[in-house]
Structures are given as C-alpha cells and as structure tokens.
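Throughout our pipeline, every protein is held as a single compact record rather than as scattered files. Nothing more is needed to write down the fold, since each code stands for a local backbone conformation. For reference, a complete record is included directly beneath this paragraph.
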Amino acid sequence: MKFKIVFYLFLFVCILLFFQLFNTNKVLNYQDDLIQKQNQTNLKLKDSIKVLEEYRATHAYFSLSAQSIGKEDQRETDLFRLENQIVDALRALNSSGGLRKVLPKISNKGTFLIDQIKVVNDQWVLIGFNSDAKWGQAILELSIAKDNSIQFNELAHFVNPL
C-alpha cells in the first residue's frame, strides 16, 4: 500500500513538473519574441533618427540661425533678431501690397502675396508667393540701412500658372 501511494505521488509530481516545464517554455518563447520585436523597433527608430538628423543638418545649412551654432550666445541672439526683423519687414511689405515694388516684372493681374519666407543668410532671402491664378518664387538681396530699415532688391524670380 505504501508503495502505491509513493508511486502515485511520484507520478503526480512528474506530471506537474512536465506541465511547469512546458508552460515555462511557452512563456519564455513569448517573452523572447517581444524582446526581438522591441529590438527591431529600436533599430528602425535609430535609423529614422539618423535620417532626420541628416535632413536637419542639410536643411539648416542654408539658414541664418544655423550660422550661429557653436558660437557665443550674443551672436545667436543677434542673428535670431535679424532673421525676425527680415521676416517682419517682408510681412509688412506683403500687407501693404509692396511686392510689386520689389518684383516689378510680375504680371499686373491679381494680387500676389508672400506665403513662404526662407532667410538664407544676411544677404539673401528666398520667398514663395502666389495669387489666385499664378504662383512663383524669388530670391531677393537685402540691405540694411543705418536706421535699421531693410531694402529688398530682386535677383531672380519666376512665375507659373496654377
């Protein structure tokens, strides 16, 4: 009788251990799959970050604020103010309808408004403008007078129909 009890107890423990082993293996495989997916996602994100940093470096190369990277804070603040001053001057020119004064060769039909402004450096500005029937882009040369007023001169432009 004792032998049967010990035998059944041994059999029960073996079945329980087998179940534990099988179940633990499933859990470990599931956790391993989650870790592998997380690693793949991290690699994709690192690649995306690298691509975005390269894009930002290329895009920021042609900007006034990028010229101050690594320089002292005062220069960075001055360039930021200059860029804001240029953009404000173009917006004031835009609201007064003065785009025709800067770009006299554009057609007389419609009102052209500046919708994109990119300050390249302290000498040039790229603008995008459009009307109800046409759109165009121009590169402007800027000069700052002693009274801090900004004058714009056209270097080149083109106009296309919508």
Residues 30 and 104 are 70 Å apart (CA to CA). The chain is about 55% helix and 25% strand. The mean pLDDT is 84.
